[in-house]
TrEMBL record:
Alphabetical GO biological process terms: guanine metabolic process
Residue ranges of every copy of the Amidohydrolase-related domain listed in the record: 73-466
Protein known as: Probable guanine deaminase
Superkingdom of the source species: Eukaryota
Species: Candidozyma auris
Length: 470
């Protein structure tokens, strides 16, 4: 079935620039690929364009009109590059604790309950189903997930996220030392064997139509202090052998950084630990990076790795305020956004984008420079930056020909909305293009700073409708 969408589009193909496309027709083929984004005077001409370029008739084309919703627009699906699915029940718990105490007092106990036994599988199914549903309803079409050290529940998670239709990087947590919670770890051999088993499980999903752009295993050393050298070396080899992406944590908390220095005195800094063991490359997502040293930023840029910025979490557990604008414009790093549930309390990347802007404003209060982030950068990081981090730049991140239709329909007039739209802001259909663009930009600002999941009325992933609140 061919689908033709009509409406206004807002996206950020370039860092710092918001592109608004008014009254566009978007043609999406049966595989979910965008064939064209085109301004057409009317529907009939758009249909004629489709039929002249495809072996389909008018009757085989589904037309979805969005511009009849006056305060609406299409935006790309959000990409959450750092989220702990297993920690979802702990949202809001532990704001009085710094990172390492928070892990020891709240996180490891919860994660250890998600195991291959009957009760553990039941709990995992409940948690994983809810977290995927929650992220999808907030417009997240792609996410890079941490699960737990348990492989059976991780495979269950892969099955759940495939069934729900969300793009996902599925990360079984790998760790072989944990003095603070000794029962929650695996041996080096178990970590490697189970990771191989997860790869095979995802291959079976691939045979069912879920290729690696939809469901992909990701090498996930939790973080350097909980992984012995031999394990990290083996994980680096696995990533190379199976051509897998990598995710981990780096330079989140000052106490954590000091711990890494004591464990790896032969490494120049935290980031270089991962580089030493083959875990730093163009497919590596480094979560947090709050306190990166100059040499670390140089190394990350040289390796084309990405930083997953998690401002909600960094604030909630008092890790620090990352100078993201400097990372983007001076250091040349690719920076994406992560909810970091449950260290973070925002379930939506929209909320994380708000946190990003507000944290940058706090930094600006004590700086002679201008570290403030605007919504153009925030939306770029939430979409294009995430696509780059996930090595999906040619697949998602914007609404343009050749990419998959991963999108959200935002409606600020939806029933029960938190956003009040006044008549002076609402498009009426008789504006010039410039006037319409100005109104849409106003609506965009109102959505970013006052909107929530109620305004995300439809979500498509890979061309398939996965959320419909209408």
């Amino acid at each position: 079935m061919y689908t033709l969408y009509h409406g206004n589009i807002v996206h950020t193909p370039k860092l710092g620039d918001i592109e608004i496309l008014t009254n566009q027709y978007v043609g999406v083929d049966a595989n979910g690929t965008i064939e064209f984004v085109k301004l057409a005077p009317d529907l009939q001409l758009a249909l004629e364009f489709v039929t002249s370029h495809n072996e389909v008739s008018d009757r085989e084309i589904t037309v979805i009109e969005t511009s009849d919703r006056k305060a609406s627009f299409l935006v790309p699906g959000f990409i959450d590059t750092h989220i702990h699915a297993s920690q979802y029940p702990n949202i809001g718990i532990g704001s009085d604790l710094p990172l390492l105490d928070w892990l020891n007092n709240h996180t490891f106990e919860l994660e250890s309950r998600l195991n291959g036994f009957k009760k553990g599988m039941a709990l995992a199914k409940e948690i994983y189903t809810k977290v995927v549903d929650r992220t999808l309803t907030n417009g997240t079409t792609c996410a890079s997930y941490f699960t737990t050290v348990d492989n059976e529940t991780t495979k269950l998670f892969a099955d759940i996220v495939a069934e729900k239709g969300q793009r996902a990087f599925v990360g079984k947590v790998c760790m072989d030392c944990n003095d603070s919670y000794p029962t929650y770890k695996e041996s080096m051999e178990e970590n490697v064997s189970n990771m191989r088993d997860l790869v095979e499980h995802c291959r079976h999903l691939e045979q069912k139509g879920y290729d690696r752009t939809l469901i992909c295993p990701i090498i996930t050393p939790r973080f350097a202090p909980l992984c012995l050298r031999e394990l990290m070396e083996e994980l680096g080899e696995l990533a190379k052998r199976y051509d897998l992406p990598i995710q981990t944590h780096v330079s989140e908390n000052k106490a954590e950084i000091a711990w890494v220095r004591s464990l790896f005195p032969d490494c120049a800094n935290y980031t270089s630990v991962y580089d030493k063991f083959g875990l730093l490359n163009e497919k590596t997502i480094l979560a947090h990076g709050v306190h990166l040293e100059a040499d670390e930023k140089t190394l990350i840029r040289a390796k084309n790795s990405s930083v997953a910025h998690c401002p909600s979490s960094n604030s909630f557990i008092t890790s620090g305020e990352a100078p993201v604008k400097k990372y983007l414009y001076e250091d040349g790093l690719n920076v994406s956004l992560g909810t970091d549930l449950a260290g973070g309390v925002e379930q939506s990347i929209l909320g994380v984008a708000r946190s990003l802007v507000m944290v940058s404003h706090h930094l600006a209060m004590d700086s002679e420079n201008d570290p403030k982030i605007g919504i153009a950068e925030a939306l770029y990081m939430a979409t294009v930056g995430g696509a780059k981090a996930c090595n999906l730049s040619n697949i998602v991140g914007t609404i343009e020909p050749g990419k998959k239709f991963d999108a959200q329909l935002i409606d600020l007039d939806v029933k029960g909305t938190n956003v009040d739209v006044f008549d002076i802001h609402r498009p009426h259909g008789n504006e010039s293009t410039a006037e319409l663009e100005k109104k849409l930009l106003t609506l965009l600002y109102k959505w970013v700073f006052t909107g929530d999941d109620r305004n995300c009325v439809k979500v498509w992933c890979n061309g398939k409708l996965v959320v419909d609140k209408t």
